[in-house]
Specification:
The protein is an alpha/beta fold. It has two domains: about 180 residues, Rossmann fold; about 100 residues, Rossmann fold, CATH 3.40.50.1100. About 40% of the residues lie in helices and about 20% in strands. Strands 3-4-12-9-10-11 form a six-stranded mixed beta sheet. Strands 7-6-5-8 form a four-stranded parallel beta sheet, with helices on both faces. A two-stranded antiparallel ribbon has the order 1-2. Strand 6, helix 4 and strand 7 form a beta-alpha-beta unit. Helix 8 crosses helix 9.
Amino acid sequence: MSTSVIEQIDHGVSKNSIELAVGHTPLIRLRRITRELPYDVQVFGKAEHLNPGGSVKDRPALAMILAGEREGTLRPGMTILDATSGNTGIAYAMIGAARGYPITLCLPSNAGPQRKRILHSFGVKVIETDPLQSTDGAQVIAREMFEKEPDKYFYPDQYNNDANWRAHYESTASEIWAQTEGRITHFIAGLGTSGTFVGVARRLKELNPKVRSISMQPDSPLHGLEGLKHMATAMVPGIYDPTLANESVEVSTGDAQQMVRRLAEEEGLLVGTSSGANVFAALRVARALGRSAVVVTILCDRGEKYVD
């Protein structure tokens, strides 16, 4: 039987339709919430919420799993283990199920109930950790589990795995460059693992050193922006490169939540709070420009995970 598009070969490992669906997301111009801007200052959202797992994390999760298989650190019979705030875990669960790997995830107990329900639906073993320690505490528990049974677990360690940022360097950035026809002037993304910001910013600066990269983070250690880190008070990811940012902006949880409502009501985009924070930051940057510009940010995940 001939090999179909659903069973292509990548480094000796067959790919299925879920994996082929990751990436190639549209770039959406935000028109109604940008009405006060000059027409030649354009703001776009990279619609990563349309990935099959519902978030931007599908890209690095797939990249880390495939890298593990290529390098022999992930073998049949092993369990994928990592710390997560939810989205990477959902991506692991989706791809792991398709490739035949059980999943164990450590996540803060105050992670959204919708995310927990999704993980349980995939058959994931969820280990809830101290909510006051956020994902930093989840990382400590996951690392301890791996060190006790290294032959049982494949521990991608998304906060310190170069395959994380490389996924965005090789795919997300290239897509943005092509979709803007090389006209992008500003890129804005929030910092969690920092993989999206690091990978995209690094590649865009190679393509055009004049592209300005702006990192975004919560405005305090105590915030409600799941998946994002307040870098001054958090465990800094090993893959984070602060030299890539031309500037950094901070966003409050309240401003992000208000933008989430505006995106739904005015743009028809039901996205999560990190997306709201990204767009709020992008508008702040765009208002200060007053000249021709193409500003791109990330719509990180779907809003259904945040609806009670």
